Amino acid sequence: MRYIKDYTSSLEGKCVLVRIDVNEPVDERGYPQDTFRIKKSLETINFLREAGAKIILIAHLGDPQKDGREGLSLEPISKVLGQVGAFEIKFISENIDDIHPNVIKNMLNSEVVLLENLRFDSREEENSQEFAKILEQFADLYVSDAFSVMHRKHSSVVAITEILPSFGGLVLEQELDALNYILNNPNKPAVAIIGGAKISTKLPVIKALESIFDNILVGGKIANEYIDEYGVAQNEKIILPIDFIDKERYDIGPKTRELFASYISQASTVIWNGPMGWFEQNPYDEGTEFIAKAIAENEASYSVIGGGETIDEVHNLHQESKIDFISTGGGAMLEYIATKGQLPGIKALASNNLDI
Predict the structure, then answer these.
(1) Contacts of 27 (CB under 8 A, 6+ apart)
(2) 105 and 249 assigned to the same domain
(3) 231 lies in the same domain as 159
């Protein structure tokens, strides 16, 4: 895969289409309630600004085809992104079909624009070549920097790479470096913690980790589903809860917390995705908080976390500085592990060799 930071020719005056991740939780007016992903996107944006490129940002927010457009415009995101980055961003609200290419071509070097929510157009999620060609007319090259959508076969992730010279961004490179280390060469003992829901999604991840990690600690709703389905662990590496906080099994119990912490404290590598209980409801967030603190306390380990609820807990406890890498991806992180890196967006980038 080619990365934009290794691009040897001048980027000055080049129109660069950049797929970023700003899919934060928003309030009723559409203003983000967190800026973790927004701040991460600044790394590639600032790199391109310093190189004198003309930067066209594209992104999505929510699922407007399912939930409607209200509150999902990227205009509030553009304001916050500009404030956090301390530079001006021009927001283009027109439908992408209606934007004249000269609006982009006439940009000044280092200028930044953000187009409206890609998912307002149903063609984005259809991986439409037609939609990709509309995006292509604005740019000389494409930079993919939204790891969280690499498992989606969408126009701004896959189809666009078939018609524009394409490169990975700075954030994407960091994501892949961290996860490839986890998959290929983790220091032992290596411990994975998998929680949350949807056992159908996470069971393949658990199976993939069995061949790499020494232990997989399973909590959350998937632990309940696993116990209901199998009764006992199907592999000696899998560690299931030994008690719960109540009969509804809404959170792991005190014995399980201590058991899981004993594995975490001895680990040289730790990966964590998914809460240990009904995270949104007190007191069922206590198991998740306990695990977050246990990971933070083992500062000698290399730790990687991902998933919205998992990241929220670490942020709430102000433990970010004690985690080695916080992934912007939840589902993408899990699918990357389950497929050993064979995500549609990653494969599309790796196969691109078009010249500018």
Answers:
(1) 33, 71
(2) no
(3) no
Whole-angstrom distance, CA of residue 324 vs CA of residue 177: 12
Q: In this structure, what CATH number is given to the domain that contains residue 68?
A: 3.40.50.1260
Residues 140 and 211 in one domain: no
Calculate the average pLDDT of the chain: 94
Report the alpha-carbon distance of residue 156 to residue 105 in Å, rounded: 20
C-alpha neighbours within 13 Å on the C-beta side of residue 85: 23
CB 20 within 8 A of CB 58: yes
Question: Which ranges in 68-213 belong to alpha helices (H)?
Answer: 75-85, 101-105, 129-136, 170-184, 199-210
Answer yes or no: do 74 and 155 share one domain. Answer: yes
- In which domain, by residue range, is 159 found? 4-169
Q: How far apart are CA 136 and CA 133, in angstroms?
A: 5
Is the pTM higher than 0.85?
Answer: yes
User: Exposure pattern of 306-333 as b/e (b: 16+ CB <10 Å)?
Assistant: bbbbbbbbbeeeebeebbebbbbbbbbb
Please state the length of the chain: 356
State the alpha helices, DSSP H only, in 231-338: 254-266, 286-297, 308-316, 331-338
Q: Rounded CA gap, 255 and 104, in Å?
A: 60
Residue 315: pLDDT over 90: no
Cis check for the bond before 165: say yes or no (omega within 30 of 0).
Answer: no
Residues facing residue 190 across a β-bridge: 269
What is the Cα 206 distance to its own chain's centre?
19
- pLDDT, one tens digit per residue, over 153-174 is 999 999 999 999 999 999 999 9
Q: Is residue 104 part of a domain?
A: yes
Q: pLDDT (tens digit, 9 = 90+) per residue, 234-290? A: 999 999 999 999 999 999 999 999 999 999 999 999 999 999 999 888 999 999 999
DSSP classification of residue 151: T
Instruction: Report yes or no: 68 and 81 within 8 Å, Cβ to Cβ.
Output: no
Report whether 109 contacts 67 (CB < 8 A).
no
Domain count, the chain: 2
Domain termination site, one of 142, 169, 196: 169
Distance CA 141, CA 10 (A): 12
